[in-house]
Each structure stands twice: as C-alpha cells, then as structure tokens.
Amino acid sequence: MSSAPQSPNATQVLRASQAAPTRLLQYELVRKVGAGAMGAVYLARDTDLSRDVAIKLVHPTWAREEDRLQTEERFLREARSAARLNHPNVAVVYQVGRDAGVTFIAMEWIAGTDLGQAVGRGPLPWREATAAIRDAAAALVAAHAQGLVHRD
After folding, report:
1. For 126, left (φ over 0), alpha (ψ -120 to 50), or beta?
2. pLDDT tens, 127-141?
3. Which of the residues 99, 114, 135, 152 is marked catalytic?
4. Is 152 a known active-site residue?
C-alpha cells in the first residue's frame, strides 16, 4: 500500500472546485450534460453563429501543476485526433481553445439520449441495439483507419 498522495481525477476536481464559467469566448454554457475522465461536457450556445454546440472542458484546478499540464496536453491531443476524423458517426470539432483559465473543445451538438440512458430504461429493441452497435463500430473503423485508438 502506497502512502504517496494521489492526484484527483477530473470528475473529483470538477465536484470540488467552483462552478464552471458561464461563458467561454463566444460560447454561453447552458447546462452540464455529462462528465468523463478528463472533464465535463456542457450544452452551449455559439452566440456568433446562433447554434447549439457541445463544450468539453478540463477544469484548471489540479493538485499539482504537472498533472494539470499533462491532462491538458492529452486533452488537446484528443481534440486534434477527433478533428482529423470526418465520419457521420463522429462529432465534428469546431474549435479548441483556452479562456477564463479553462481549456475546452467546441464540438457539434448531437441532440438525443445517450446509450446509457436508453439502456437504463430497459432492453433496447433488437433493431435499435443493432443499429447503435453498427454505428459505433463504423466510427471506430474510421478512427482506426486514421491510426487512432479510442481510449474509452
């Protein structure tokens, strides 16, 4: 058992820190829609282009500076990788940036229910389940064709 202190993951940091900004550049954050290993995703409004977008952000409050820098670099690599993909089952990356001390990715907003929520309501009809698996597999094939490996 190690007694060395462990750095918090992004979800812990997001819960422990102050609220996310309400605006990043031209994006007005509307509501949080999810959280992952590196940060959180928000529905936002692009006020310049009058459209909804998804904003994925990394919160800057890390226990150690080197952890924050490594996480932000990994996050930016993810943005660059996703931007290389051009596939109907992969969200389009519009912009990557930093504002108000927060590194973020602005992406295509895809309205709907996530798979976890859909399955949580009960088993999916087989046609719906098959289509979801087919679409996810097609996106992974496109990523692998570009030399990318999805970490999740």
Report:
1. alpha
2. 999 999 999 999 999
3. 152
4. yes
